[in-house]
Amino acid sequence: xxxxxxxxxxxxxxxxxxxxxxxxxxxxxxxxxxxxxxxxxxxxxxxxxxxxxxxxxxxxxxxxxxxxxxxxxxxxxxxxxxxxxxxxxxxxxxxxxxxxxxxxxxxxxxxxxxxxxxxxxxxxxxxxxxxxxxxxxxxxxxxxxxxxxxxxxxxxxxxxxxxxxxxxxxxxxxxxxxxxxxxxxxxxxxxxxxxxxxxxxxxxxxxxxxxxxxxxxxxxxxxxxxxxxxxxxxxxxxxxxxxxxxxxxxxxxxxxxxxxxxxxxxxxxxxxxxxxxxxxxxx
Length: 283
Hints:
Blueprint: H1 9-12, H2 17-35, H3 71-107, H4 109-123, H5 127-138, H6 142-166, H7 172-179, H8 184-220, H9 232-239, H10 248-275, H11 278-282
């Protein structure tokens, strides 16, 4: 007797244009950041005042700034800083927020109330304002920017994990695990977490893009990476007084921020379409 193989909805899904485009842009962003460790057109720490404020040319593809530094080189190294801050901050939120959300869903009661009210307290402050407050107290710098952005990411992942986990605790396979004598922690690790991993991955991509924006905003107001480390936000801050006669100083860092965030958002949307099984039932 032969059994006909049937493909699942997840297996029948294909990569959407948003996923392909977002993945391509994000891949180029990561390659630029990693490639800047081994090559840039010019050293970013070298000042060349004799060639300051040069427009884009064959020698300097994106022009030079008011110190004569090559703008293309600074954008490449700035991508490295944005990538490091955003990845680590999103990782902090994922690694600390997910266990809190799973704990709230598993224990309910006092633990759930305490974790969710703590999340509400963090959400009471706008994310950028919270980051500015933390870095203003702890001092400027990339490490403190990571801490500030990561603190806001923790309740984001906690809420996502809790909401997704609550819908699974009434499933038959979870009830069977409880009957078998497994505790809440083991059930969360073995049965709940694998089934909400796709949602966490999508949320991670979204928080990654928010981290890039937050890092640029903190650098713009002087609370992110400090000189001489290039940063897209500080490049915009330096360019604002020269935009009338050297517009390239604002255009290219601004485009770098816009394109990288757009790519990450498209990647998040594409991953949601690919990984979320609920979308198949709506179609």
